[in-house]
Amino acid sequence: MASYDLVVIGSGPGGYVAAIRAAQLGLSVACVEKRPTLGGTCLNIGCIPSKALLQSSERFEAASHQFKEHGIDVGSVKLNLTQMMARKDKVVEANTKGVEFLFKKNKVRAVMGTGTIIGPNQVKVALNAGGEEVLDAKAILIATGSDSVSLPGVTVDEQRIVTSTGGLTLSAVPKHLVVIGGGYIGLEMGSVWGRLGAKVTVVEYLDRITPTMDGETAKTLQRILEKQGMSFQLGTKVVKADTKKSGVTLTLEPAAGGAATTLDCDVVLVAVGRRPYTDNLGLQAVGVAVDPRGRVTVDHHFRTSVPSIYAIGDAIPGAMLAHKAEDEGVAVAEQLAGKAGHVNYAVIPAVIYTSPEVGSVGQTEEELKAAGIAYKSGKFPFTANGRARANGMTDGFVKILADKTTDRVLGAHIIGPEAGTLIAEIAIAMEFGASAEDVARTCHAHPTLNEAVKEAALAVDGRPIHM
């Protein structure tokens, strides 16, 4: 029986980062992965392949509609979907191979198979190559991630009715794609196929898209996506899906009640959320407590009800974000090595990779109002930013929220070009307890998109220069 200081179950961003950090700190580590490749959902069928397709579709859109304005004549632009998918697969392979290299570099053993916890210090692995192996561990870390949520009356076949997994491998551009769910995944995948020529309809049960996002930002995003051709049916639920040879017929009802209608399409993407992947891990047998939603219950040190077993990422409560899982994995590894691992949940950014992107960190205006916190808001539009004008990407704004008394930054919401990168500046500022004035007094290079962040910080005090 092989013995380790730490056995990690799952090699997604949370799991592989935890394994590498623990190894760096001198622990002996094995990481169990049921897929044939490392990287989990994110690298194989999630974040990485979707961003590859987003990038490719944005370039196709630019070549088809924007190059001429820049004085670039390319003639007729044709889509080679086979090549686009091949590039996506190459990107995925490079990333998964990268994790494999890092495991070898840091002496982390990858055990390819399905892991089951059979005791407080033992994991049994049904090896992909055949047979079983039992791993002995001083500590076990559950980093199994999440899976797509199913919808009653809608049976996924990954051909006509697909999850994000099937949505990344369609063999042809649908004439009409219906996305069930107006969250991050649905809007990103809808954007990909919309740019490539599909009519895209988003059906959302709530009366708004991206319900956890700042309200003003969400409304702006919906308006921009509608300008791009995406249509929305809000306050609507899908009660049934009938698959036919020619496509799918959805039966819809108003969420508030009312007469049913039908909607025909070629492909349906089910993107109504994700659930923790904690089935068949043996949790109940060893006494690991889970909540009614299947999430593992942990304390503030990520320890479960069994002291030697820990859990992170999508398997526990909180935002289902890869970078949250990474930070939690580092925290667990450092705690096991006798250090003070910690995650600041108040400063975890979230990004939607539509075009324009949306980046958020900290509290929304709605949250501040609900908590009775007096705040100031500073907003600056990208239409007034010189670099955004030069790039021809002027949709959106930067909004910074600061405490009315102390001026400490409480949150920021950016919709616009490279918002996912720009939000990092505010995250760092918040991590160090900066005020809006601190951000405003920091010299920003010209001409850059980041100047919009500085101007929004100035606007908190009512003194933007370029507006």
What can you tell me about this protein's structure?
There is one protein chain. With 467 residues, this protein is an alpha/beta fold. It folds into three domains: 2-148 and 275-343, FAD/NAD(P)-binding domain, CATH 3.50.50.60; 161-272, 3-Layer(bba) Sandwich (FAD/NAD(P)-binding domain), CATH 3.50.50; 347-460, 2-Layer Sandwich (Enolase-like, domain 1), CATH 3.30.390.30. It contains 14 helices and 21 strands. It has a five-stranded mixed barrel with strand order 1-2-3-4-5. Helix 3 runs parallel beside helix 6 (184-195). The mean pLDDT is 97.
Terminal CA distance = 68 Å
Question: Strand order, biggest sheet?
Answer: 1-2-3-4-5
Q: Describe the biggest sheet?
A: 5 strands, mixed, barrel
Contiguous low-pLDDT stretches (5 residues minimum) are: none
Mean pLDDT: 97
Q: Do you know the CATH topology of the largest domain?
A: FAD/NAD(P)-binding domain
Shape: globular
CATH superfamily of the largest domain: FAD/NAD(P)-binding domain
Number of helices: 14
Rg result: 23 Å
Q: Which CATH C-level class of the largest domain is it?
A: Alpha Beta
Beta-strand portion reads: 25-35%
For the record, the CATH architecture of the largest domain stands as 3-Layer(bba) Sandwich
Count every beta strand, where a strand is a DSSP E run of 2 or more residues: 21
For the record, the count of structural domains works out to: 3
Percent range of helical residues: 25-40%
The helix-and-strand class reads alpha/beta
